[in-house]
## 1
Amino acid sequence: MSMEVIGVDVGGTTVKGVVVDGDGRLIRELRRPTLSPDPAGTVVADTVAELVGVLDEGSGCPVGCVVPGIVDETRGVAVLSANIGWSGIPFADLLRARLGGPVAFGHDVRAGALAEARWGAARNASGTVAFVPIGTGIAAALLVDGRPLVSGGWAGEIGQTLIRTGPHTGRRVEEVASAAGTARRADAPDARTVAARVDAGDPQAQQVWQDSVEVLADALAGMTAAVAPETIVLGGGLALAGRTLTDPLERALDARLGLLRRPALRTAELGDRAAALGAAILAMESTE
């Protein structure tokens, strides 16, 4: 049997932990609620340590952990994570102190990109790949020759840019086009419900959906013009709509990109385990 590793994803609402082997086969999985706000990071660090202890079963598996927001992997610092209430938290050091050993540390979206590229929707993709989860928020991770573009932790925050024209001027991209923003504007429990209403011909849902597509297309077109990914993997709740999302989004990108190459759009395959699986990849790489 190949080496087993542990990957942990600290989300805004849930801490997800997995044990996988070198081929990405899931062996064990546990989840715990994220207790936040936690401005010192100590409560979440305790939760991660407890989860790792249960998953490890005394075998001493290598551990990787990823967190949301602006993350500086080099320094091991969670620079900013509004959902958990973190600002400048040396989270890697907190974890190493609790676990008594090394921890591979990273960013949740970049880790998700690694997992989708190795074991998911982009496993046979060439060139530059972008992973764009569209859930509570929107961010992008770019893999260039298989390695994440980091830029001090600031790369890929496309959901934070301000909309400059149209009915949503002044709002951030993720406020409008995220799964949460789309559901909120349609007065629906989730984005999948909005998509079902779109497919059923509901005019109010169709307008909300079209606004989300247009705003998302603007953000993706800018990213495409700058870094020219050959493939964009769409994840998160909005991507569960499948072609209800990708068909109009392809048309919107064509209208914006002109002579530029439009990336192939794929929907993610690894679901909400992607970041935890990516954390496991970081753990594997830390032992090489």
## 2
Amino acid sequence: MASTPKNASTRNSVFEIVRTQLLHVCREHQRDFDAEIHLESSLIADLGLDSLSLVEAVVALEQAFGIERLPLEALNEGGNEAYFTVGSLVDLCIRHAAVCVAADEGMRA
């Protein structure tokens, strides 16, 4: 899929929200957390998220984006921890937020 300026802008906006929520969760669990968060950052290896903090981050993102359920299993599509990146979480939020918006618009029609 080619990246258009609108797609890039949307992805950057979603990344900033995801980054903010991840920083909050990371600092809650690791008081001295000061790592930079990039799209390529691993949720586990780089950010140090465990299963509990990952769930807390997902719940915060569901609330931030108005998503009913953000399926964590989709992050592991390749069956490999390498897919647990900030970028894959951003893409998952974009996909599911778009589905929620489409469903809401369909209910209003």
## 3
Amino acid sequence: MTSVAVGAHPRLRALLRDRGAWYLTGPQELASVIGRLERLERDASPDLARPGSYLLLLDLTSQTLFNLRLCERSRGTQEISIFSPLGARLLAARAGDVVTLEGFGSGWRLLLVQVRPG
């Protein structure tokens, strides 16, 4: 099981630190990642978020925009792994989708504003 804070965006790490919350990736989310990767293999549409895509996200609570790169394994502060809870939800999403992470008090909601191929 992996904590969402590993390789997460600094704002997300700060949110976790401030709220003292941890959200873990379990078998159900890993199965979801595999299913989404299979969907992406069948659908070559450039508007779907896939490993390597650059994503522009809007935090619907703070109205803050930030950029993330979706990747298999995050190596920097602007990258998020598809195996993290947030990355798993962003995988195969398209602009206009709202991604929600439960477990952060009232939850954390992000609007995917733009997907750019990597």
